[in-house]
Amino acid sequence: MGETLLRKVIGACPHDCPDRCSWVVTVEEETGKAIALQGNANHPLTAGRLCGKVAGYLDDRVYSRHRLTTALKRCGPKGSGQFTPIGLAEALDEVADRLGAVAAQYGPEAIVPFSYEGTQGLLQSKSMSERFFARLGATELGKTICGPTGGKGINAVNGTSVGVLPEDAIHSRYVVVWGANPVVTTQHLWPVMLKARARGAKIVVIDPVATRTANAADWHLAPRPGTDAALALCIAHVLIAKGLTDAEWISQHTTGYAELAEAVQEFTVCRTAQITGLREQDIETLALEYGTVTPSLIRLLVGMEHQAHGAAAYSAIACLPSLTGAWRHHGGGIAYHTSPHFMNAFNMDGLKMPHLAPGPRRQINMVRLGQALVDPDLDPPVKALFVHGSNPAVIVPRQPLVRQGLQRDDLYTVVHEHVLTDTARYADIVLPATTQVEHLDIMKSWGHIDLTLNLPAVAPPPGCIGVTELFRQLAARMGFTEPCFADTDEQLLATALDSDHPYLAGITVESLRAQGWQRLRLPQPWIPFANGFPTPDGRARLSAGAAAAATTTPTGPSDNRFPLRLLSVKGLHSINSTYADTGRAQRRGGPWIDLHPDDAAPRSIGQGDPVSVHNQHGSLTFQARLTCTVPPGVASAVFGAWSNGDGPGCGPCLNLLTGDELTEAGGSSYQDTFVEVARQW
Ligand SMILES: Nc1nc2c(c(=O)[nH]1)N[C@H]1C(S)=C(S)[C@@H](COP(=O)(O)OP(=O)(O)OC[C@H]3O[C@@H](n4cnc5c(=O)[nH]c(N)nc54)[C@H](O)[C@@H]3O)O[C@H]1N2
Ligand SMILES: Nc1nc2c(c(=O)[nH]1)N[C@H]1C(S)=C(S)[C@@H](COP(=O)(O)OP(=O)(O)OC[C@H]3O[C@@H](n4cnc5c(=O)[nH]c(N)nc54)[C@H](O)[C@@H]3O)O[C@H]1N2
Ligand code: SF4
Ligand SMILES: [Mo]
Q1: What are the start-end ranges of the H helices in 530-621?
Q2: 111 pairs with which residues across the strands?
Q3: How far from the centroid of its chain's Cα atoms is residue 313's Cα?
Q4: Which helix (H) or strand (E) covers residue 276, if one does?
Q5: Is the pTM of this model over 0.90?
């Protein structure tokens, strides 16, 4: 008997996760089947291990019996999930005809492309599809739901939202994880923090919820949600009052110190304890430790941004390392995200070709998708929706309105997907997508600076089509004759890297093939503001922190029938709504809503009781979990469950209860959701 020949192919996880693992697919030559998927042992952060969400990617997606492998045409009412299989060519003919007809009758802006972070590959999410919709002159989607609010807050102070490289946490001696949950959401960064701890660092978590990270940390402080700006301003107050500031750094590298010093005067420890609900002694200890242990690092992610005044908290916090001079040190300052390093370096214009647009394009904010779909006065009205790499029926706030819009008979909806998501069930045409092991891509990361390459390892099922090929074929059918619509994936990859940016020096497709990833050539050690801040005068603007003083009390319930704040948190078993369909999240019971015993008692709610969680938008059913991990006044549940169908992952979708009010940066304020919880009898 001959030996089974195996081939190893490098790739990278496509998900919206800061870790961006590099992976290795093992393919059986004879069958052409992928038989194993493992983390790349050569990649420092991945260290040979994929997380539990993705380790089963081959079973859960590539070879899943639930995978879409043929195009579908709707044959029942919208949302019913009734479809007839049709050929891919026929489906594409129909889509091209219908888009053409909509553009001709209502103008191209009546077509709205809705894509988000299902895959973060540049080719699958930011190349041919962007060219296509630009050339068409379709509406542009304002991609505001994750990141811009926190980014705006930090930018207002530093002129950029980049800072310390998250992996440089290893050099820190005081790590403040502020509104982030790395044990769940950045699983490969957490071991770096533990290594820093082994070298003497203290890990402090600031989170209203006692998360897994909080439980694993040295110290957990649980302020009331939305009071972080006050806490940061109070820390500034103590640093100034105790003379723990770095006067030289302040005078050489900042403006607005006097304004900030004035603004923080009212944030005494006593008053801040009242605002935040923290103990005075704890606030003082936090400020003193932060001001004296060097290097100190604040790790931010998106946990605090989804509130009306989310940006203010990030601005106030962003002032702290400029007060202490933490930015001087390797591993000192703020670690937020690393995307801009990549996006500034890649040839994004070459990939997206925005100049193809016939003129300026209307923008619709993704957070307000529901309003856009039902607005009778919108000119032009939305007549076609093209979804890929996203699941708006689940992830967009104010879900009932989104679904009302998706239900419209005069809306033509196309969904390109792996599985029949809630959104896909509303489609007129569903197109089956290739998975990450079947297409070429190149990936940025938002949690490290390693560029990863993803090579196709196996052939896709015959009925499936990748995003690039999909839009190539649609472009041909729409009569777009520009040569750029004939670019192959290899040409797109070369275009992405066709840049003189020094960070890409020496990085080529060939060199990436060798080990699957390569580090951007940032100056080492990376001390982000060693040469000044990227503001017009090179200085950090502490006045932006001072301005945060105006919004230090959280938004409260607007209707006293709904007094409890509903916090959504990311789940361990899903990435946003992806993999909710595996049902893994429900294997340990639930779905749970976490409630403080003090809130449960007056409502006669006992452990495990079925409860309705409701407000002006709707009602969901959960099982109550009484726990002191949430503070009084807060109910908390995992986000991501689908609600249609009868699959194992179906459950309460939190966006049924959220509103579509915007943050200062146009983002979603889904953490400003207020509900009542009642025992179901
Ligand atoms: N397993 C898993 N990993 C993921 C994801 C996932 O769905 N599942 N999603 C990915 C994506 S898209 C993102 S954006 C990241 C998000 O990564 P994180 O920001 O780490 O995750 P979140 O759960 O959104 O929020 C973190 C914490 O913020 C806290 N928080 C909420 N409001 C406040 C507040 O007012 N103040 C403070 N101090 N804390 C507050 C919440 O209690 C929560 O524990 O994770 C990524 N990684
Ligand atoms: N209430 C509440 N709402 C939230 C959040 C919350 O915590 N609470 N989190 C918010 C955040 S931080 C984010 S980032 C967003 C996430 O919003 P999305 O980026 O829309 O995330 P997913 O729900 O994972 O949906 C991605 C979809 O893309 C599909 N997909 C994956 N790969 C491909 C591909 O190669 N091609 C195509 N065509 N499709 C593919 C997946 O199957 C999946 O259905 O949700 C936001 N909404
Ligand atoms: S979701 Fe994140 S941790 Fe999991 S494999 Fe992908 S990049 Fe790694
Ligand atoms: Mo996100």
Answers
A1: 543-547, 597-600
A2: 384
A3: 18
A4: helix 269-276
A5: yes
Pair 142, 666: CB distance under 8 Å: yes
Q: Are 168 and 329 in contact (CB under 8 A)?
A: no
Q: Which of 400, 375, 412, 485 is nearest to 113 (CA)?
A: 412
Q: Which residues of 244-281 are buried (b: 16+ CB within 10 A; e: fewer)?
A: bbbeebbeebbbbbebbbebbeebbbeebbebbbbeee
The CA-CA-CA angle for residues 317, 306, 628, to 5°, reads 85
Binned at pLDDT 50, 70 and 90, residue 646 comes out as low
Beta bridge partners of 27: 7, 34
Closest among 364, 363, 416, 366 to 395, alpha carbons compared: 366
At 582, is the pLDDT very low, low, confident or very high (cuts 50, 70, 90)?
A: confident
Instruction: Give the pLDDT score at 585.
Output: 74
256 CB near ligand 1 (under 6 Å):
no
Contact assessment for residue 50 and residue 23, using Cβ atoms and an 8 Å cutoff: yes
Amino acid at 355: H
For residue 407, the tally of other CB atoms under 10 A from its CB is: 14
Q: Which two tokens stand for residue 67?
A: 């995978």
**666 is written with which tokens?**
């146009």
Among 22, 38, 49, 51, say which to mutate for ligand 3: greatest number of ligand atoms within 8 Å of CB: 51
Is 178 close to ligand 1, i.e. is its CB under 6 Å away? Answer: yes
- Phi first, then psi: what are they for 664, rounded to 5°? -60, -25
Question: Mind listing the pLDDT tens digit for each residue in 221-262?
Answer: 999 999 999 999 999 999 999 999 999 999 999 999 999 999
Identity (one letter) of the amino acid at 561? R
Contact 72, 85 (CB under 8 A): yes
Using CA atoms, how far residue 671 sits from 15, 153, 332, in Å, is 23, 17, 29
Q: What is the gyration radius of the CA atoms in the chain, in angstroms?
A: 25
Where on the phi/psi map is residue 31: left (φ > 0), alpha (ψ -120 to 50), or beta? alpha
Query: Atom 47, ligand 2: which residue's CA is nearest?
Result: 395
Confidence of residue 268 (pLDDT cuts 50, 70, 90): very high
The tens digit of pLDDT for each residue in 361-411 reads: 999 999 999 999 999 899 999 999 999 999 999 999 999 999 999 999 999
Secondary element (H or E) of residue 576: none
Ligand with the closest atom to the CA of 183: 1
10-26 b/e with 16+ CB inside 10 Å = b?
bbbbbbbbbbbbbbbbb
Contact 621, 652 (CB under 8 A): yes
What local confidence, expressed as pLDDT, does residue 4 receive? 86
* CA atoms within 13 Å, Cβ hemisphere of 154: 25
**Among 167, 251, 248, 197, CA closest to 526:** 167
Pocket of ligand 1 contains residue 629 by CB under 6 Å: no
Block residue for tokens 């191209």: 108
Top mutation candidate among 276, 570, 638 for ligand 1, by most atoms within 8 Å of CB: 570
The secondary element (H helix, E strand) that includes residue 97 is: helix 88-106
Return the beta strands (E) in 208-354 as ranges. 219-221, 254-255, 296-300, 333-335
**pLDDT value at residue 590:** 85
Among protein residues, the one whose CA lies closest to atom 25 of ligand 1: 303
Residue 266 has pLDDT above 80, yes or no: yes
Verify whether ligand 2 is closer than 6 Å to residue 425 (CB atom).
Answer: no
